[in-house]
Specification:
The chain is an alpha/beta fold. The protein has helices at 45-53, 75-78, 99-107, 121-132, 151-163, 181-198, 209-214, 233-237, 241-252; strands at 2-11, 19-29, 34-39, 60-65, 68-69, 82-85, 169-173, 202-205, 218-223, 226-232. The strands form two sheets. It has a six-stranded mixed sheet, with helices on both faces. Strands 2-1-4-5 form a four-stranded antiparallel sheet, with helices on one face. β7, α6 (181-198) and β8 (202-205) form a beta-alpha-beta unit. α3 runs parallel beside α5 (151-163) and α5 packs parallel to α6 (181-198). The chain is globular, with a radius of gyration of 19 Å.
């Protein structure tokens, strides 16, 4: 479903601030893979995510989604393949619009985006059932302005919106990092449920090693713009945080250092 082939990205080339962010980077995701991504500061996690989304073009290499070469496509043209949830709960929803209006916009993604015809009774019932999954009582607040919701409620709503049209690839960029632990756990449980239900191919960046081990069928670790660990199957299920840190040391020749990392 995703093929990244020998991608290189350099920021500020030819200057004192030159930074090799992705170094001949390659990664393949099979249909239905749920891959958690970890790595230290500057390892290339967000650069990889932005390269897939087309935030900027890569210097060399290829990116294919479901067999289609998107390497040279602009960000808005790639959007039809992708669902994305960012770290900031304020991103991804329209604060001045109601919950049902936000969901209607997400449902009409790829079609003419207009609310002129209004939201039908059938759609409203569909949104109610969708919101029940979250267990946050939002199904009874369809007309509430999204700006009145808590960060966790907005992030859960953004997750629903990003997956409504079953994207070919779901990108989760530390989507629980700004939430308190209890709310973060709820959003992660909802994420796992939706990804498994719809068999969505998913990349999830997290700074929590325990979450990286607990969720998904595969874990990759980045360092200096490359994949240095790729753990899956039974090996991943039995993995502990201590073993993961040890594996990182063996693969990189250094200790794991990340001022945001949560070990467990």
């Amino acid at each position: 479903m995703l093929e990244i082939k020998n991608v290189t990205k350099v920021f500020n080339p030819g200057t004192v601030n030159e930074k090799l962010a992705l170094d001949n980077f390659s990664l393949t995701l099979e249909d239905g893979d749920f891959v958690t991504v970890i790595g230290g500061n500057g390892a290339g996690k967000s650069t990889m995510m932005n390269a897939i989304a087309g935030v900027w073009l890569v210097d060399s290499g290829q990116i294919l989604i479901d067999g289609e070469d998107v390497t040279k496509l602009s960000e808005h043209k790639r959007a039809k393949f992708l669902g994305r949830v960012f770290q900031d709960p304020m991103t991804g929803t329209a604060a001045t619009m109601g919950i049902e209006e936000n969901l209607a916009l997400a449902k009409r993604r790829g079609h003419r985006r207009t609310l002129r015809q209004g939201i039908s009774r059938k759609e409203r019932e569909e949104y109610r059932e969708l919101l029940k999954i979250l267990g946050l009582g939002l199904e009874d607040r369809l007309t509430s302005k999204v700006g009145l919701l808590s960060g966790g409620q907005r992030q859960a709503l953004t997750l629903l919106m990003a997956t409504m049209r079953k994207p070919k690839l779901l990108l989760l960029d530390e989507h629980t990092a700004a939430l308190d632990p209890k709310t973060a756990q709820k959003v992660l449980e909802t994420t796992e449920y939706i990804v498994n239900r719809d068999k969505l191919t998913t990349l999830m960046i997290t700074h929590n090693m325990k979450d990286a081990i607990a969720h998904g069928n595969r874990l990759i670790m980045l360092n200096e713009g490359k994949v240095i660990l790729d753990i899956r199957g039974e090996e991943k299920k039995k993995l502990t945080v201590e073993e993961l840190l040890h594996k990182f040391g063996e693969a990189s020749g250094e200790e794991f250092a990340n001022d945001k990392a949560i070990l467990g």
